[in-house]
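Please predict the structure of the following assembly.
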Amino acid sequence: MSAFNDQDKTLIQDAFDQLLDHYNKINPNGKQALIKKAFKLANNAHDGMRRRSGEPYIMHPIAVATIVSKEIGLGATSVSAALLHDVVEDTDFSVEDIAERFDDTIASIVDGLTKIKTVTEGKEIGGSMQAENFKKLLLTMSEDFRVVLIKIADRLHNMRTLDSMPARKQYKIAGETLFVYAPLAHRLGLFNIKTELENLSFKYEHPEQYAEVEKKIADSSQYRHELFTQLTAPIAERLEKLNFDFEIKERIKSVYSVWNKMQKKQIPFEEIYDITAIRIIFKPQPGLSEKIQCWNIYTAVTDVHKPKPGRLRDWVSSPKGNGYEALHATVMGPQGRWFEVQIRSERMNDIAERGYAAHWKYKGGHEDNETELEKWVKDVRDLLEQSAGSSAIEFVDDFKRNLFSEEITVFTPKGDMYTLPVGATALDFAFDIHTDLGIHCIGAKINNKLVPISYVLQNGDQVEILTSKKQKPQLSWTEIAITGKAKSRIKSVLKDEFRATIRQGMRVLERELHDHKLAINSPILNKLLRFYNMPNKEELYFTIGNGNNKLQDLDKALSTSRKNKMVRSWNLNLFSRRKNKNEFSIKDKLALSDNESKVNYNVAECCNPIPGDNVVGVIESDEEIILHRRDCPNAIKLMANQGEKIVDAEWTSERKMAFLSQIKLTGFDRMGVVNKISKVISIEKNLNIRQFHFDAHDGVFEGRILFYVHSTQTINNVITEISKIKGVHTVVRVEQG
Ligand code: MN
């Protein structure tokens, strides 16, 4: 018996019937029994559950499945997985249950979807949660594409119904959509969905600007439509004469794109001239290639309207990385205004609108050349494999720079075509062809002219890589290369060399100690680290190995006593940059470790500054400031973009002594536990956090906190307070070294 009333039941049944009708129309011999079965299970599982808006929960999976079928064009397996996508997360069914009742494919898609959480659901640890999630998303994508496509559909429906979320969550979800899902949809060729996602995100992030631009577009629509009619009438006449089977559409730029262009070019709405574009979609005549027919239409169009020189874009001969094919021209319309004309066959249009799924449809399953999109997925996989060890934030940066960016096309002397992100250098190109070529690259010949490896490639360049057997990667190369592929290869070669140097350093130290009748052990290492002021033994070995540390005063180093473990404690002064703005109620100069101070600070994970470093503070909220090193790339980016959030900071030394201590804790990974712990620590006076590290897996976390304290009393207080937090299992103090 259902927990819903008759009205709800009718609502649900109607929505599902519509989905099934649509599916059957497109797939007359499809697996509708499978879809019905998935619906039945999902409907039972979510019985009685409601969404925040009040409607039965099952309406959401039905809507997602409808998007998957209608707007992305996927088949019965994906439609079924979409219907089941929240079952494991929200009900008592497990992945195994799904596998038992359906098959492993559907189960693994549902599993993938369950693992990717929305940013607002995750615990945010140092802001990298979002990045971690993104990495997870891509990981599942490289295993089965359908996971990410269904996730995009899920997100689209959530964005369409975002109204019922509290404002705080709306911001976060909209931000994440703009950051991750819209570019991903774009990259997968889901142009319509990408546009809608961007538009909706923008609407929730900037409601006033959205309304303003929307109104301006609406107000000018009649005028633009008149121009459109004047422009297209002679084109249509001409194409009819030539017996083309075609359709001409008026495409209006989305509110977000218009606004984005206004921002980028710093111009008012009135100066955006490409709000309307003309789209000519034709059914190809048999016997002639689509490419030739595109050009025939181009000729017809430019016979009646003058084309703008240099504005022709041919994505028919070489499609875009996301599979987009079309011919774009700009022609002069009525009143001397320029209009973009997009020429596409029906197939090209389908690909432009539905992307990935449409691709496969036209490929017909048979093996032919790898598409650009498949190459891209390979690159994603590559980047993921190479990124092990780098932080998630670093990875996302790399990813966005490499795989979401605009592309250029360059050629080898033999005429082979390569696609690289804008800004790629000759060195990137060398690594793109082959690792060996990259490693030994000394320069290049561009269109027969010699250039250095740092040359930034231009669209259409013909590139010949020059190599020398003696060449090997330098540290500076990681700055010259911009692609993840090249960077990771360079780093791995450098890492090998780094390791060799470390081994060398260890051997030298062993020899030296042997002369003192000693061997390497941790008390001795600790003495040396303190004496030579090294953060860890790898660094110590490295400096010995490369000759920068000649082990002078080794006798003295070995005889140092424990009191060297004491370090000076530090205070931090912050200076507000904009003194007149009361956005942030900070005193002109504030010592953060002052007893009365209410402002907490944390060190950024990306650069982990310690007392003595040149630092700036980034205001995260009223109560928290994140410290970055002044030369940290993230801080530089923030200073450039969000200057109002930056405060100057300065360490000032105090005479009191403090020592570095460490506590380790374990517990259950409950919501908010980490936040509570960090709160306890930051409330405690006289505490300087050096490092804050948490690892969570399978519902259990392990944490390590390093801080400077003045007395053991402080540590005991901290331990007592932390052990009171629900979810914390053990807290112990650990001796250094
Ligand atoms: Mn969902």
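The chain has a mean pLDDT of 80. The chain has five domains: 6-206, 213-363, 497-558, 573-651, 659-734.
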